[in-house]
Amino acid sequence: MSESPDIQSDPDRPGQLVATGDWRIDTVGGQGSPFGGHSGDCDALDATGVEHLDSVGALLLVQAAEQAGIAPEFIVLRDEQRPLLEAVIAAVGDREPEPDPEPAWVSFLAHIGEVTTSFGGGFKLFLGFVGLGMESLVRTLFRPRQWRITSTVHYMEQTGLNALPLVMLLSFLIGAVIAYLGATVLREFGAELFVVDLTTIAFFREMGVLVTAIILAGRTASAFTAQIGTMKAREEIDAMRTLGLDPFVLLVMPRLVALLFMLPILAAAATLAGMAGGMTVSAFSLGIGPDLFMSRIHETLELRHYLVGLVKAPLFAAVIALIGCLEGFKVTGTAQSVGERTTSAVVQSISLVIVINALAAVFFMEVGW
Fold first, then answer.
1. What is the spatial order of strands in the sheet that 16-23 belongs to?
2. What is the pTM of this model?
3. pLDDT tens across 133-143, in order?
4. Which residues contact 35 (CB under 8 A, 6 or more apart)?
């Protein structure tokens, strides 16, 4: 029967350890650590007394030598066991030491850098996509054969007509809320009539087009991303390129043109619905009838208020359509990627719409509009 693995100091040769026994996984596994306690200034490890050796035993011999301060090259073995030990030493030497854990603040700063770099790259890609969209729009404008009228009309119905009830309902409720809150504050000053001014200017300048853009950003941008992303996952876009067709002209241009036409129309409808909500609250809560409400609108409203809201509509439409299509082209081919890109399209569209609206509001106020 083979002896258990063991390492002992050699009393005749100070500074030298002697390994004996069976150094295989079957015997070593149940022995715990056969070399515990041997550390210090040792010169060599004599393992010529090892009866049997496998890779696990060779690894334990190397660890025993390192613990005792002995370089693996000073392990003495029989000639037939030496190649196995050298292979284990080479494998252990190829392992890179584990790096020390970074402090939390370093990881936090690294994460901020990664997010900033990702945002910069994404913004650069979006600008390139915008440039490609403008170039394709101008190029196809004078080539009627490339107009996708059927697809454009389909997306006009999908993004505009089908979204009209939702846009008008939400705008009506928002107009009613604005009028009610304004009445609650202005009633203390006896200025309930100015609720008409508040509702009118708010919807014609900001709320009409902003509410419409936010609804379409959540409804339409996600649909564009899911549609194009699914086509990307099924390799239909690659098939288009194989046939010599331009996926941008086929997929992006109809959606972009449809939204450019429909968002201003929806914004106008949302403005009228918001005014109707304000008129309803004014009639039932403030005693301001429809005639007085319309008369006050005629006195207050100027053309510049409507133009300020109208000029932002095509810009919002382009942002929503291009972001939705761009995120669709980023899909890598899995269902998870489609979901991630759809979420990203909605978040980016809504965020960019609000940022652009805020910058435009400041700009127009500064120039006296």
1. 6-9, 16-23, 44-53, 75-76
2. 0.66
3. 788 778 777 77
4. 7, 60, 63, 64, 67, 68
